[in-house]
Amino acid sequence: MTNVVVIGSQWGDEGKGKIVDWLSERADIVVRYQGGHNAGHTLVIGEKVFKLSLLPSGVVRPGKLGVIGNGVVVDPWALLEEMERVRAQGVEIDPGSLVIAENASLILPVHRALDRARELARGADKIGTTGRGIGPAYEDKVGRRAVRMCDLADPEQLRRRVDGLLVHHNALLKGLGDEPVSAEALVRELEAIAPRILPYAGVTWQVLSEAKRAGKRVLYEGAQGVMLDVDHGTYPFVTSSNTGAGQAATGSGSGPNSIGYVLGITKAYTTRVGSGPFPTEQDNEIGRTLGERGREFGTVTGRARRCGWFDATLVRQAMRVGGVNGIALTKLDVLDGLDEIRIGIGYDIDGRRYDHLPASEALQARAVPVYETMEGWKESTYGARRWADLPATAIKYIRRIEELIDTPVALLSTSPDRDDTIRVRDPFED
Ligand code: GDP
Ligand code: IMO
Ligand code: MG
Predict the structure, then answer these.
(1) pTM for the full model?
(2) Which residues bind IMP (predicted)?
(3) Bigger pLDDT: 2 or 21?
């Protein structure tokens, strides 16, 4: 029996939500361990569509425990709102089915304001963040001045924490010519929300450790993707957390030996939302076709996602730094009907050939992809549930991807629906 970690292999939105939902049938616990409500995970179950940001994708299945780990930055107002929205869709959520780490850092209104103000100040150089306050909240965590879940239970400590935090933020706001934040008002807001969120707070590392001892299966749900990782991504156009599989251990307090199989969710083409380098981007008819067919609009912000060809160089890199054992290849159906399909197999930068994406922002910006071209297929793969139903040319494309990224396909997804998933090998049994 193995625990499975699901991570994104590209720039996010690879279809992690769908695959986590599908896998969670055989898991006991689903854990979020990094990121926050910048994530947008879509689950399609028959007629029902769930859009989850902070809630682990297992919540929609009765009897599963959802854990929000210490590595997540939690906006308590956004979380309560999401819980209400999901409850209105008929899902039961209570402290028996959801536990939030008592040592998770909180996202406060001041973080959101700072995120947006900074983006405005960057002008054309903006990161294109989700504006949710993710970066500033992680800065405060690492800066050792964050307000954490457990502080909500102790009025005196909460006041001290808020005072400490505002020394930093009000100096910053003053420098930017903005109004300072009132400590009293912030404490009042937090005290008002505390009784609603505290029933969910718990010792999640212990919950996971006991589950491990009892032989329960844990599914770790990553957010974003390896190319948005703060160390390994296209810095500075990244998110503010580590998105590789190692973070599942630190972000939940489980230790590295809790991780069994790492499944990299990988889109059959590439998308990116927000700014930053994207060598195989197709800012043309092809890109628009992929965007329309794949309905590539952000789950969180509604922004149109940039689209392009599959970049095998980038994904191979993600396989290595993310620690991936096998992939779930998603959205193959979006490529149906194309005459030819291209795959990026390397970069040309200033006349030199690269088999990886170098770390320098300037070099990344000048990376020109080297392509190989494959024949497309005319048949529809939408909703295919058997490998045998796939056209030979589609199988050839999948096999070529496996070869180029040196990682096998474990699952294949052919529509947004939970059930349209082909199992090649079982991540829980591998
Ligand atoms: P996540 O952030 O990785 O969970 O991905 P998102 O939910 O943000 O974006 C993926 C989108 O693709 C969602 O709208 C899914 O419903 C949809 N999707 C997932 N798998 C497939 C697939 O195999 N085919 C198609 N056509 N859509 C899919
Ligand atoms: P899921 O989990 C796609 C991107 C933002 C921006 C950058 C930094 O749904 O795959 P942030 O708000 O995190 O400081 O923004 O990261 N980004 C995502 N892109 N999917 C996501 O999550 C993302 N979360 C953040 O667009 O470019
Ligand atoms: Mg998403």
Answers:
(1) 0.97
(2) 13-16, 38-41, 130, 144, 224, 239, 303
(3) 21
The number of residues in the chain equals 430
- The DSSP bridge partners found for residue 44 are 49, 417
* CA of residue 5 to ligand 1 center, whole Å: 18
Active site residue: 111, 141, 169, 232, which one? 141
pLDDT, tens digit (0-9, with 9 covering 90-100), for 215-240: 999 999 999 999 999 999 999 999 99
Cβ neighbours for 149, distance < 8 A, ≥ 6 positions apart? 74, 100, 101, 102, 103, 104, 106, 197, 198, 201
Residues 272-315 pLDDT 10s: 999 999 999 999 999 999 999 999 998 777 889 999 999 999 99
Q: Which two tokens stand for residue 162?
A: 């808020």
Measured by CA distance, the residue closest to atom 20 of ligand 2 is 12
DSSP, collapsed to helix, strand or coil, labels residue 393 as helix
Q: What is the dihedral of CA 271, 277, 280, 283, to 10 degrees?
A: 70
Q: Is the CB of 224 under 6 A from ligand 1?
A: no
Residues 356-408 pLDDT 10s: 999 999 999 999 999 999 999 999 999 999 999 999 999 999 999 999 999 99
Question: Residue 405 in contact with residue 326, Cβ under 8 Å?
Answer: no
Distances (CA, A) of 279 to 124, 239, 329, 349, 366: 19, 19, 20, 11, 8
**What is the enclosing helix (H) or strand (E) of 385?**
none
d(CA 58, CA 412): 20
> CA–CA separation, 16 vs 199, rounded Å?
28
393 is in an annotated binding site: no
Binding site membership of 330 for ligand 1 (Cβ less than 6 Å) = yes
Q: How far is the CA of 79 from the centre of ligand 1 (A)?
A: 22
pLDDT in tens, 144-178: 999 999 999 999 999 999 999 999 999 998 888 88
141 included as an active-site residue: yes
Q: Residue 162 Cα, ligand 2 centroid: separation in angstroms?
A: 27
